[in-house]
Amino acid sequence: MTHITTKDYVYAMSKDNAAVAHVQQNQTFSVDTFDCFRNQMEGAGYILEEIDFAKVNPATGPVFIDGAEVGDVLAITIHDIELAAMGSMVSSDLFGSLSHKLSGSIVQPVEIIGESAQIAPNLSVPLSPMVGVIGTAPAEGAIACGSPGEHGGNMDTKEIKKGSIVYLPVNHAGGLLSLGDLHAAMGDGELSGTGVEISGKVTLSVEVLKQSQLPTPSVLNGELFTFIASDPDLDKAATAAVEKTHQYLISEHQLDEHVACRWMSVGADLGVSQIVNPLKTAKVTVNLSWLK
Asked: What PANTHER family does its record include (predicted)?
């Protein structure tokens, strides 16, 4: 099985990044990932001010998917997410939705114990591993791995987990897929500015969908289909996610535009993935079993 290590990583997604590996459609491969701090925390004594912020948010890759052509859609199945034994969380007056309420910064080492993450003495949360950053080369220019967009990127959407299928656009030959920023657990919003940031390994495979009309980025978990959009304005991100969902219902389920609108008002759930990145990310989830 092809295995890609963290010796090959990027800080921005771009068509100009040379592919570090080629994989065939439906070939299972694995990718090692740094945490969002590029594994600097332990060496910095878990002191936020001691890390080099020029080295945050790396993504391993990019990977060239054989047969992927401009206009296709990548269907990326996340087969497994393996976590390191230790992660970290941050609360700080420098970032996060509560930065204005805090004074100074605290980095909390987080030990993974069984199926839980110990986020403070005598306080643990259940593990819910997810991939924070996953994306293809954007249509134009370079986009920092710390930012989300139509190419994917730092969506911090907790539905991107083991068993999910992530749909991303192919804007350049091979797609040039990169990923990183694993979280052992994270709630919607990522309110402190971090989840349980952790390194690890992701096992995945990719199918290339030809002439697909699926809106991207999006993610399927069983019967639950989530459509994702990002914008500096959270309201605009929400509107874009709603419009993608509406488009999907019309094109894939042949609903009239008014019927689709009414169905969404009872059968779709609007949510927030994160509010702490350069662009905010909203999502709409529909239950496909309601459409059968």
From this structure: FORMAMIDASE C869.04-RELATED (PTHR31891)
Residue 215 neighbours by CB distance under 10 Å: 24
Q: Which two tokens stand for residue 160?
A: 């991107």
pLDDT in tens, 160-202: 999 999 999 999 999 999 999 999 999 999 999 999 999 999 9
Other beta carbons less than 10 A from residue 82's beta carbon: 14
Q: Is 45 left (phi over 0), alpha (psi -120 to 50) or beta?
A: left
State which CATH number among 2.60.120.580, 1.10.10.10, 1.10.8.60, 3.40.50.720 fits the domain covering 2-82+128-211: 2.60.120.580
What confidence tens digit (pLDDT) does each residue in 8-38 have?
999 999 999 999 999 999 999 999 999 999 9
pLDDT in tens, 41-71: 989 899 999 999 999 999 999 999 999 999 9
Q: What share of the chain is helix, strand, coil (3-state, %, to 5)?
A: 15, 45, 40
How far apart (Å, rounded) are the C-alpha atoms in residues 262 and 5?
47
